[in-house]
Amino acid sequence: MHLPSPARFLLPIAAAWLSLALLPAGAQDDLDIFASHSQKQQNGGVRIVSCDEQVRSQKRGICMNEMSQADFAALAPGVSWYYNWHYETKYRGISGNIQFIPMMWGNRPEALRGLDSTLASASPKPPVVLCINEPNLKGQAFITPEQTANLYRETKEVTDRYHIPLVGPNMALGSANGDSITAQDPIENKMVTYNFMVPFLKATLFYLKPMGITPPALAFHSYGAAGEIKWAVQMMHQTFNCPIWVTEYAQWKNPDSESAVKYMIESTDFLERTPYVAGYAWFKDRVKDNPNISLLDKESGKLTQLGETYVTLPAHDSTIYYKIPGQLQAGNYVTAEGADIRPTADTGGPYQMAANTSGATLDYNIQVDSPGAYTLGFRTAGAAGKFDVMENGQVIGSAQSAGGNDWHTVQAAIPLNAGMQKIRVRYNTSGICLHWIEFVRR
Known about the structure:
This protein is an alpha/beta fold. It has nine helices and 25 strands. The longest helix is centred in the middle third of the chain and has 17 residues, at 257-273. The protein has helices spanning 13-17, 33-42, 69-75, 109-121, 145-160, 197-208, 226-240, 257-273, 305-312; strands at residues 47-50, 60-63, 81-83, 99-100, 103-104, 129-131, 166-167, 170-172, 182-185, 190-193, 218-222, 244-249, 277-283, 320-324, 326-329, 335-337, 339-343, 351-355, 361-368, 372-382, 385-391, 394-401, 404-416, 419-427, 432-441. Strand 21 (385-391) and strand 22 (394-401) form a beta hairpin. Helix 4 (109-121) runs parallel beside helix 5 (145-160) and helix 5 crosses helix 6 (197-208).
């Protein structure tokens, strides 16, 4: 069983801000290592679905220790992959279409042989392998940057035989001095206690550079508030200019289930909608002493409220097109600017999109079989204001919401061409909430 040390929550802010300089050019920016591979395997590229079909996120995963076949089945509508901090799994026969991702956990020579054996027999091969769990944190892999670089190279020699990208190291975000690795830093030329992940990663990459190795993606873990995970993801991408994986996340100190759900919605939708986040995994299946982060109830196959939320949160997948006519949930956007997802008390779906600013936009992929005039019904509440429907930067229709606490539907008439296309919904007032859009052929 893997449990986080309280020390990982103690991020030294001063050290963080001293570590934001960009790496030299050369880091790769392959934005969808996991998603692109899986979509080619499972979807064959672009996929057209009905408006009411639940689309499973290709990014969404889970950290787990013990699960039943019923547990996997309960998570499968929303979760695509899992890992267990090991190179092998005993669940291949019962995990259904939730794919196992191996991990090379730490500096254990026998594990390299085990990983090689696993990859040789795996069918299909995993899209990535995770490498080195928290080398900067006592009680985990806990090895120096130089040892981390050497282990990464040795693991890459194995994964290269199977043409599988190696994601990592998988870092603890930060830790107290007594729980942090200390080593001679090759950049600072002095002994450094690595209580923040960025200097450790820079030192590791320094050792990897003469080997001709640049990791295609880096990973870290976060157990603070939603603001922490947003800041850390953006900072990591800015600093290292590569895709980011968040291979453990949860808010460890949630006071109640309502706060836990609020954190999950905000953090998970951020990870799902951010293009340079290639994958993420919730910690975890069940946690005996912390029910406010458990996805599964004690009963086999039963989701907690948190688990229901994790499974039902929409995917923001640019390869998915929704076939109209039909009723499309507002949360099924491809990209969003200035609007956030929230639970809704309205009937007909669990989430709404609320505008945080005037001019907020939501982009949707739609497939139109029958071209012509359509009526769009906007299910709305909150502030009074106008929705504009746009295509190729031009307004093609508008609807005016009267506002108020009660949900109501307002309409706009628009023309649509046949085929796959993107439309944009623009809010002209902050505070407008949108639950769904209904497309009706006139």
